[in-house]
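Meet today's protein:

…
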Amino acid sequence: MGKKLDRYENYPVIILLIIGVAIVFSISTGSSEVQLSGNCVDSDGKDFFTSGNMRLGFDTYEDSCKNFVTAIDYYCYGTTLYATETCPYTCLDGRCLTLEQAETYCGNGVTEHFEECDYMNQDDAAAKICGSNCRFSS
């Protein structure tokens, strides 16, 4: 008589097959999301210079700015759901801006919350003394 197969004998093969399908699906969809733990997914991988979101179960948390210099980046790590970071220049739309990014707003005609003035803003009463760096001249 032949050997009787254990009903759990094929489980490793099935598990490897499931993992393989998941990897192929992940590569084919081009997903940039970082699966951190359980049912928690962070779209930007705790990058304060990128605005993203974190999904925990059915809840979604959007990265945001606490004020003009503090970014709130939601991510999962153990019991931590978010972290705050003081931005080197400013926070805008849920992310810290680099110096180069912050400089692109200067001269756009809008006095942003991180600018003292904007030399292209004709409504700015101080436009005559606003420097090209969007700071008041001394």
Summary: The beta strands are 34-37, 40-42, 53-56, 59-62, 64-67, 70-77, 80-86, 90-92, 95-97. The chain has two domains: 32-97, 98-133. The radius of gyration is 25 Å. Residues 95 and 128 are 31 Å apart (CA to CA).
